[in-house]
Design brief:
- By secondary structure, the protein is α+β, with helices and mostly antiparallel strands.
- It folds into two domains: about 120 residues, Ubiquitin Conjugating Enzyme (Roll), CATH 3.10.110; about 80 residues, no CATH class.
- The protein is built from eight helices and four strands.
- Strand 3 and strand 4 form a beta hairpin.
- Helix 1 crosses helix 3, helix 5 crosses helix 7 and helix 5 runs antiparallel to helix 8.
- The N and C termini lie far apart (about 45 Å).
- Bound molecules: zinc ion (ZN) (2 copies).
- The site of one zinc ion has 6 residues, from loops.
């Protein structure tokens, strides 16, 4: 079996999680079982719950983030509770390119991923469920508009044209950075522009495949007239 970094450590922390083999194709392996969510953030109520979850480690891990969902009926399977309309109602743990980058920084450490993505998600879900508190760690609108908004913030650009510019840089050959002019008013080349958009583009792209950004770009092309 493929060794997944941090998988044993995760099972040590959450002893109810049992490991199962995958399907030999897309799913490398599965962790399934009850986990305790016992958490309290400053200014928020305590959550003390147990929930049965399943974590599917997919082929391509850690570049491809795990799929995580509930094996039970505690969480309403609605977009409001950030479950995905994928038939499994998998948890919407964040924007895919950010999960990919997070796993890159974690070097694929599954316990780290549980602590930074899954546990905060479960905490937010139970705060909403038990106390009607809106998602505490912020939420991104689903689908392309949400991703565009998120990228607009991160690139610090004014509109979708800026987002498309950044995505083109991320999906093109590295030379584009040397040859392209920045979209700000400086008239300087992107590489040397004092607005530092180049640096932000690099940071956003760190550890994320061109393919991931190409998918975002394609879905923008599909849903808008922006080119
Ligand atoms: Zn969501
Ligand atoms: Zn600039």
């Amino acid at each position: 079996m493929t060794e997944i970094p941090g998988i044993k450590e995760l099972q040590r922390e959450h002893k109810g999680l049992r490991r199962f083999a995958g399907d030999g194709a897309e799913v490398l392996c599965i962790l399934r079982g009850p986990v305790d969510v016992y958490l309290k953030n400053d200014g928020y109520p305590l959550v003390d719950e147990t929930i049965v979850i399943e974590i599917q480690i997919l082929k391509g891990y850690p570049r491809v983030p795990p799929v995580v969902f509930e094996n039970g009926n505690k969480i309403p399977k609605t977009p409001e509770f950030h479950t995905n309309p994928d038939g499994q109602s998998s948890f919407c743990l964040g924007v895919p390119f950010e999960l990919e980058r997070e796993l890159f920084h974690l070097k694929g450490d599954l316990l780290g991923f549980y602590n930074s993505q899954i546990e905060p998600y479960l905490y937010a879900v139970f705060l909403k469920l038990n106390h009607d508190i809106p998602f505490v760690f912020g939420e991104v609108e689903h689908g392309t508009p949400g991703i565009v908004n998120e990228l607009k913030k991160q690139f610090k650009v004014n509109d979708i044209h800026g987002v498309v510019f950044g995505l083109k840089v991320l999906t093109d050959s590295p030379d584009i950075i040397n040859s392209t002019r920045c979209i700000c008013e400086s008239g300087k080349r992107l590489k040397r522009c004092p607005c530092r958009l180049n640096k932000r583009i690099k940071d956003i792209g760190e550890g994320v495949s061109q393919e991931t950004f190409q998918k975002i770009l394609n879905s923008i092309y599909l849903h808008t007239k922006v080119r």
